[in-house]
User: Which sequence fits this backbone?
């Protein structure tokens, strides 16, 4: 089991990380439900990123204390006061706490600043897209949620698309196309299956062709949260890799992009790895999930949906040929990145 619930004297913090929509919250909730009976106090703080931005960290502290001690009229005037109250009231209590979708270090500092805030045997589970946040907070037990294997992906798609695992064989080929497109991403499989629920084979085929051209906005919005959290230079590096350099050796990417970004390439690429946007495998070079690649290309495409010559990057031979044939006055600017990378 990922979280040991034995009667020991330690407070354990566990980090669950991975790209958006891959199932971190689902896994954390399953753990929460399976071991909740072993604790005196329980709290599942959902959407920490969103709720802290809207209502403040002291609001989350109030929810935490209310659920842990069973009081509804707790007043917290500041984050510092909330920290003091948690240390005082939870220090002797064996608790199970889930922090879902953390994206800033101050969120961890305000809610789970130190293991000694909680009683012996307590467990804290943190979900995030950013592995570095967990390392910075000295969370030692880390678990990466990876994409689904093909059989599990097929079962999920079948259930969402047909409410059964026994699907008419006439759908086999198109479902293989959807599986290839989603590449084991649970959110994508759920969204596509639900959109195409009990649709004809022809409708499935038509839809997947459309999704391959323009990603589904519902999926794009979830994935884009990680992109939006990047600094401007890191956004630019990510778009360069997504549009032009997926699969290249790390050393080649660093050499090519050093002219544009200087000698800080290792740092920028490290940030993208920590944010679960890219991976590095020495046999396959710098890689990323297919949907993350599609997100990057869609961000660039939306810069000018109908006029490729006005986009910051070009990767499609058809678009490059169109720009050349149009003899656009913006040719130099729009092709600059592509030409220097060839």
Assistant:
């Amino acid at each position: 089991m990922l979280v040991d619930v034995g009667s020991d004297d330690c407070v354990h913090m566990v980090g669950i990380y991975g790209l958006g929509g891959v199932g971190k919250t689902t896994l954390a909730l399953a753990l929460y439900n399976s071991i909740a009976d072993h604790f005196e106090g329980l709290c599942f703080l959902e959407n920490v990123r969103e709720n802290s931005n809207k209502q403040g960290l002291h609001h989350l502290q109030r929810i935490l204390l209310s659920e842990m001690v069973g009081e509804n009229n707790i007043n917290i005037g500041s984050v510092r006061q909330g920290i003091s109250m948690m240390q005082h009231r939870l220090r002797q209590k064996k608790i199970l706490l889930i922090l879902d979708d953390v994206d800033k270090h101050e969120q961890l500092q305000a809610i789970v600043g130190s293991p000694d805030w909680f009683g012996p045997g307590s467990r804290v589970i943190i979900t995030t897209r950013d592995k570095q946040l967990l390392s910075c907070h000295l969370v030692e037990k880390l678990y990466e949620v990876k994409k689904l294997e093909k059989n599990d992906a097929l079962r999920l798609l079948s259930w969402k698309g047909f409410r059964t695992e026994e699907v008419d064989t006439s759908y086999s080929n198109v479902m293989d196309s959807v599986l290839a497109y989603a590449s084991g991403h649970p959110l994508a499989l759920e969204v596509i299956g639900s959109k195409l629920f009990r649709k004809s084979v022809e409708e499935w085929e038509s839809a997947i062709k459309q999704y391959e051209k323009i990603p589904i906005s519902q999926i794009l919005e979830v994935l884009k949260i990680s992109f939006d959290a990047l600094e401007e230079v890191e956004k630019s590096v990510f778009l360069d890799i997504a549009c032009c350099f997926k699969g290249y050796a790390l050393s080649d990417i660093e050499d090519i992009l050093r002219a544009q970004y200087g000698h800080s390439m290792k740092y920028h690429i490290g940030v993208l790895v920590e944010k679960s946007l890219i991976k590095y495998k020495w046999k396959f070079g710098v890689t990323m999930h297919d949907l993350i690649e599609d997100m990057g290309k869609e961000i660039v495409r939306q810069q000018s949906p109908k006029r490729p010559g006005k986009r910051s990057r070009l990767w499609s031979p058809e678009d490059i040929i169109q720009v050349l044939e149009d003899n656009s006055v913006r040719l130099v600017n729009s092709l600059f990145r592509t030409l220097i990378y060839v």
